[in-house]
């Protein structure tokens, strides 16, 4: 065995375990652990901004289901052949646990769910999104472990010492057994964790608010996703020779950069209130009276 193989990254031998008749999938576990991590971080950050941490859980009851459904819809729309093409099975479009969630759909639909949750809780979406942003990157980092277990979405062949081993059963057509591939799951994990650290630092250093932490999250993620997407070799639909997700990264990233700059000029500093309707003097008097009783 060569030195390169000795230094390579092995793929997990399996991604599914069975508890009796029930399958336990590493992909689903990774997604759930990512959600838990994001909620824990957001609760802490929301409390630091003066909010009630329990509000985060209430909002998540809307944001998380919307995000999962949106992520699946985006995946199916951008990769329809597996479900509606020749030999495809439309019913499998519903099998989220098998893998296949598009981050853009998850963020877009999740934002709608978060907006609904924020309205119901009487808080503003922008500061909540700022509190959530670093946790999103951590959740995405953890979720990429599911791709590692599934032996999917890896990059092109490489001779680097951190090349990824892929079992013959998952080997793309045209490649010999033993070929090593770029571990794009690991690249994105490291990029996302570094990005989360940058967001926390920038937020504390520059007192970002009014949604600017969230827009910076989009800029950081799209920048990383752009070059990582160019490394991947899994089948994907293209426009003008570039993968759909490359174009999405460019367009969304530029839009987020513009939003970050414009919002910063219009609303420098942190939000003055987290509430949709700030308490009035009459509310303060009523609260004082209640406390005195």
Task: Tell me about this structure.
A two-stranded antiparallel ribbon has the order 1-2. The protein has a two-stranded antiparallel ribbon with strand order 3-4. Helices cover 61% and strands 5% of the residues. Helix 6 (125-143) packs parallel to helix 9 (212-231), helix 8 (184-206) runs antiparallel to helix 9 and helix 9 packs antiparallel against helix 10. The protein is mainly alpha-helical and 293 residues long. A hairpin with a 2-residue loop joins strand 5 and strand 6. Residues 274-293 are annotated as: Disordered. It is a multi-pass membrane protein. It is found in: Cell membrane.
Task: Jot down its keywords.
mainly alpha, two-stranded antiparallel ribbon, two-stranded antiparallel sheet, globular, disordered N terminus, glycosyltransferase activity, membrane, Phosphatidylglycerol--prolipoprotein diacylglyceryl transferase, transmembrane helix, transferase
Secondary-structure map with pairings?
Layout: H1 3-6, E1 16-19, E2 22-25, H2 26-48, H3 53-78, H4 81-84, H5 103-121, H6 125-143, H7 145-150, E3 164-165, E4 180-181, H8 184-206, H9 212-231, E5 238-239, E6 242-243, H10 244-266, H11 281-292
Antiparallel strand pairs: 1-2, 3-4, 5-6
Helix pairs in contact: 2-3, 2-6, 3-5, 5-6, 6-8, 6-9, 8-9, 9-10
Binding site for a 1,2-diacyl-sn-glycero-3-phospho-(1'-sn-glycerol): 144
Region (Disordered): 274-293
Protein name: Phosphatidylglycerol--prolipoprotein diacylglyceryl transferase
